[in-house]
Amino acid sequence: MSALTYDREHFYLDGKEFCILSGSIHYFRIVPEYWEDRLRKLKECGMNTVTTYTCWNLHERKRGCFDFSGMLDIGAFIDKAKDLGLMVILRPGPYICGEWEMGGLPSWLLGIPGIRLRCCQEDYLTAAGDYLKELFVHIRPRLYENGGNVIAVQLENEYGSYGNDSEYLERLAEIYRESGMTGMWFTSDGPGYFMLNGGGYPGTLAAANFGSNPKDNFALLKSARPDQPLFCAEYWNGWFDHWYGEHHSRGASDTAKVYEEMLRMGANVNFYMFHGGTNFGLMNGANFENGNLCPTVTSYDYNAPLTESGDLTEKYYAVRAVNEKLFGPLEPLTVRNLPRSSYGKVEFTQTAALFEQLSALTVPVVSPYPQTMEEIGQNYGLLLYRTVLGKRMEELELTIDGLGDRASIYRNRKLLGIMENTGKRMDPVRLGNGEGEETVLDILVENLGRVNYGGHILDRKGIERGVRLANQYLFGWTMYPFDPMEYSAYPGTGNARNLAECLTWSEGAEHAGAENEKGPVFYKGELRIDGTRDSYGDTFLKTEGFGKGYVWVNGFLLGRYWNTAGPQRTLYLPGPLLHPGENELILLELDGFTGEGTPGVTLTDQEEL
Known about the structure:
Elements: E1 4-6, E2 11-13, E3 16-18, E4 21-25, H1 35-44, E5 49-53, H2 56-59, H3 74-83, E6 87-91, H4 122-139, E7 150-154, H5 166-178, E8 184-189, H6 193-199, E9 205-210, H7 214-224, E10 231-236, H8 252-264, E11 268-275, E12 286-289, E13 292-295, H9 314-327, E14 344-353, H10 358-361, E15 365-367, E16 382-389, E17 393-404, E18 406-411, E19 414-420, E20 430-433, E21 439-446, E22 462-469, E23 472-473, E24 477-482, H11 499-502, E25 506-507, E26 521-529, E27 539-542, E28 548-553, E29 556-562, E30 570-573, E31 581-589, E32 600-604
Parallel strand pairs: 4-5, 4-11, 5-6, 6-7, 7-8, 8-9, 9-10, 10-11
Antiparallel strand pairs: 1-2, 2-3, 12-13, 14-25, 14-26, 14-32, 15-24, 16-21, 16-24, 17-20, 17-22, 18-19, 18-21, 22-23, 26-31, 27-30, 27-32, 28-29, 28-31
């Protein structure tokens, strides 16, 4: 029997009435050194529970190779919460949405012929079952019934927003039972009958997810499930940002007002998010809206009660005040904002052109036709498609059929234009070839993040159908995959290669690649820090003068910047990623440096989102 039970109005833990006051914090979006800080701030806000997703695509980045170490040590995160007196609600998916790459599903699934996702298809269920069984080895001893603090586990995630395959949910439930996942299960969906009924599982508590209007949303939930208490499993108190979009914010007073309204209705609430963290690496997801891809930014600040760097906000104090108002005085705050450091400008002193480093970074794949990343076993990053035109032809319009997502097109290393499936940029590109000429056509395609929500999650990257001039398809391609994650100490990447040692560097960096004459360019510099680890803190990396690319610090891939799209202008750099002495910074600029003077980045104590 579950230790967490319920009747029509209330939850009970060990037979005592228990109101779930929870906040979402994802262990895989925070460096482990800061887990305790974030969890303690949750606790001192008056919350009694932390909710977290798990990320299949990092835990099993390559099929059959599981990683639960370091930043992926879900067991250590749960134990840390227990030490602080917090209960845990686990949302293992296998699909999580979460504005996370492909909703947490591993991209290697897309390389399985005929794969169908999130349904009762054997290939998918076998893969999902292998992951869940491995994950539950780490969770089972931490269930409340086994002496731990995990009081509830979600079955799938917002499934009613995607499908209605009840047999699929039953097969997942069988995996849970076979893995000894006793205790209370629940589902969560948007507040609509089709979503609650499509995503619900018989005999299991159903929660609703929404950001406002609790009176009507809870009335609908109660109508659909009259014999259970009210539970908002995702109270959207902020929102996420897209490249090319605006930074979202929601007022503290409005957030607190709706929260208090829910509690006065006798509801149980989980803040989504309480602390968002960061989409480190290349793990941001994307939405698909009006026929266009809308990729999420690197920051997952979410305008939550705790900022991306863990600072207490006005929203935090407003939420804490509601908890004190309704549940009594809290102990005085002991938590504080962590120190920040401003190091000024770090100039780059060396460069390496990507096109000149291909033999060191990648093993080429030869094919008559362009293949997708998934077809050649690539997960993230860049895929360079190259073909040679040697026959005379008129100047014709170039078209890429099935582009995912952003293509930089070069003729003999000269940039002709950029095409995106974002709906924001589609440069017209025309190409011809004279008698006796030879044209090297390079198309560098970037994965901007796989769709994480809705009917487009089967989202392959690269070039899916072909490249043509007018109506003539081009054949005879050599493909050069470059996955920046393979060169990162980011979790789930295994034995990452040392990027700096793989490249052949040239001294000097002034204006390298400014006119895109060299194509994408790597830049390298060093930040020297004097003193001990306790003498410096977090910082924010500003890439002024650069257009679009990636940044590594001491081998850790912070993520992507995109100054020409915005809104995010700085990358969060947690202090634990730095060390006393020399710190290595590497930047890969895709579009060309256009700033003044020697290229470099600025490390400041102020974020710009």
